[in-house]
Recover the amino acids of this structure.
């Protein structure tokens, strides 16, 4: 990869600052868990798998700073660290998945010296990052089989290397198809209001010389109707047991337009994005973000002062619109209730 989203370096967490892209490629260093929590909340790092990695590293940083004589006191304080990290963003389940994984590792090693537990947690966080990269590559391999030579792929938001430990989920499929020599191109929705498509997807694909064309969100349907889009591939923040999928606001519209125009619509996500405890998308918590993201563009007002605003950051695409879910363990189509459980047990 031509950039690094997040890494553990010399007992610090280093992240590319996604609030500054594409203008500046700046790497921030974090040495305490509270500033990692702030980075997640403020979208320095974003994208479901990437915030999972950041949370795991945040827990490991927090563990280093805990002063305790006993395991019980250590674990109580570690739970407090976890609670603070868990309150940063509500929708992407990978955040909670990673935090739970770190807690379980601490518990499984409770009989060890505290310094040893701190070391084990650090290794586990690095492992979450390394595994995510391998998972994205596997998603890419499975997804690439669905992409024909000369295909034009529409994507929404950024489900790329920047949203993961590297390589990406939806963009992992794109990268893998490109690497196998297929002559593909991407149409990137700009993704109002935070512009993940314009600022991040466009940036990372251009950096890797993958052909990309930027469109505003309201152009997607027109290009589909004109026959210029062959398939849609998007990421996911949480997938309920029945396959309903929460992803960046606007994904639902893309899925409905794809159905209307007979275009396959795929979701690419690791199985850590499944939340099988939730039966349907109706129960997925949807983050509402600050109105300023809608009223301002890069600090400039684009709406009258005082206007009432709604700003849900995600929507839920009902499973019936999803042609298939591409995971690291393979592609599932239809009967998601049974298939998703089967995949998790695989
Ligand atoms: O608000 P964001 O930028 O964190 O939202 C990100 C998305 O919706 C992505 O599509 C999703 O997390 C999948 S990332 C591989």
């Amino acid at each position: 990869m031509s950039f690094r989203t997040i890494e553990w370096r010399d007992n610090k967490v280093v992240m590319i600052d996604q609030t500054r892209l594409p203008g500046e490629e700046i790497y921030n260093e974090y040495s305490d868990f509270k500033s990692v929590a702030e980075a997640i909340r403020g979208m320095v790092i974003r994208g479901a798998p990437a915030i999972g990695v950041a949370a795991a590293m945040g827990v490991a940083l927090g563990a280093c700073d805990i002063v305790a004589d006993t395991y019980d006191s250590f674990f109580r304080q570690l739970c407090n660290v976890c609670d603070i990290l868990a309150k940063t963003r509500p929708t992407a389940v990978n955040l909670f998945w990673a935090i739970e994984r770190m807690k379980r590792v601490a518990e499984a090693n409770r009989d060890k010296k505290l310094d040893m537990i701190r070391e084990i947690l650090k290794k586990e966080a690095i492992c979450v990052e390394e595994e995510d990269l391998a998972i994205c590559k596997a998603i890419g391999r499975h997804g690439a089989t669905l992409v024909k030579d000369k295909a034009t792929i529409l994507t929404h938001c950024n489900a790329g290397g920047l949203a993961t430990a590297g390589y990406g989920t939806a963009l992992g499929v794109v990268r893998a198809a490109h690497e196998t020599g297929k002559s593909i191109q991407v149409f990137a929705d700009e993704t109002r209001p935070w512009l993940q498509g314009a600022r991040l997807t466009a940036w990372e694909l251009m950096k890797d010389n993958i052909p990309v064309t930027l469109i505003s969100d309201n152009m997607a349907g027109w290009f589909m109707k004109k026959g210029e889009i062959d398939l849609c591939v998007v990421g996911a923040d949480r997938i309920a047991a029945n396959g309903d999928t929460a992803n960046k606001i606007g994904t639902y519209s893309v899925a409905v337009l794809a159905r209307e125009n007979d275009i396959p619509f795929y979701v690419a996500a690791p199985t850590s994005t499944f939340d099988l405890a939730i039966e349907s998308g109706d129960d997925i918590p949807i983050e509402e973000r600050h109105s300023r993201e809608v009223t301002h563009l890069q600090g400039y007002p684009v709406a009258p002062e005082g206007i009432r605003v709604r700003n849900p950051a995600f929507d839920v695409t009902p499973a019936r619109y999803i042609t298939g879910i591409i995971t690291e363990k393979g592609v599932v189509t239809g009967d998601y209730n049974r298939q998703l459980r089967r995949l998790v047990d695989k």
